[in-house]
Design brief:
It contains 10 helices and 12 strands. With about 300 residues, it is of the alpha/beta class. The protein has one domain: Dihydropteroate synthase-like (TIM Barrel). An 8-stranded parallel β-barrel has the order 3-6-7-8-9-10-11-12, surrounded by 7 helices. Helix 8 packs antiparallel against helix 9. It starts with 9 loop residues before the first strand and ends in a 16-residue tail after the last helix.
Length: about 300
Amino acid sequence: MFKFGREQKIYDIAGVKIGGQPGQLPTVMIGSIFYHKHRIVIDEKTGQFDEKKAEELLMKEKEISEKTGNPRIVDVCCSWPQAFGKLIDFVAGKVDGPFCIDGATAEVRIAGAKYVGEVGLSNRVIYNSIVPHTREDEIVAIRDAKIKSAILLTLNTRNPTIAGRLQVMDELLAIAQKAGIENTLVDVCVLDIPDPGPISKTIYVVKEKYGLPAGAGVRNAVIMWKKKRALTPENYMLADGVANAIPIVLGANFILYGPIERASTAYFSCALADAYVAYSVRQEYGIKPLTNNHPLYRIFR
C-alpha cells in the first residue's frame, strides 16, 4: 500500500468525518433516495411518496452502516423544484447528520438551496454538485443559502481521460470559492463502462496534488454495462463489488453507491476493502484508524 506525500484534509460535516490518508477513516457511503423512477415515489412533481417504505429504507441503511462502521450520507434526489422541500424535510427528520441535495436541473438545485437556507439546514447539506461552467444564479443561490459543503464533479466530456478530469479542477475550485464552499469533495465522474480504472487513478492524483477528499459514483459504469449486455444477478453483484472496491484501494474517501436499496452489498464490499487497506498501512506505515468504529475492527467479527 501507500500513503500520500501531501497532507490530507479531513472534514467534519455535521458529525461525519471524511478524508485523510488510506486507513485512517472508513469510506463514507452515499446512497440515493427519491431518484428518477424510484418505485417509492408516487408523484415526482408534487413530491408524494410512500413514507413508510422510505423510512424502512433509511432505517435499514442505518443498521448496515452501524454494523460495518462506514458512515452514511443520504443523497436526496429531486426532479421538480416544487417537490424538493417535502423530500428534504422528510430525510432531515429521519436522519441524523448530513445529506446531499441532488437536483436533476439547475432550477431544481437552486430551489433546494433556497429551501435549506430558509429552514436552517444549510450546515447539514452537501450540494450535489458543482460542475464546470456552473451558472451564476446557481452560485449565488449556494452562497446566499450559506451552504459550506459541496461535491465538485470533474465533468469534461471533451476530454474524458484522467488528464481531462484534472484539467477542470482549478475551474471547479474557483467556482466553489466564489460560492462560499469550505468543504470540497471531488467526484471524479464516471463517463464510460471501463472507467473504474481511470477514475481510481484520478482519485489518487487528486488526493496527491490537492489533498482533498475524493470519490466517485462508480456504479454508473456497471449500469452502463448492464444496459448493453445481459449480466446474471451473480455477475452484476460481483461487478458492483469490484467497481466499488478498486477506488478505495487507490485512496477513495467516499463512494456514491447508487440506489439506497443496494446498501447491503455495497457496504459489505467497501467495508472489506477498507479493512484490507487499513491492515496493510498499519503494518507498513504505522497508520492507525482514527475511530474505533472502523471496518477493520468490525468486518471480520
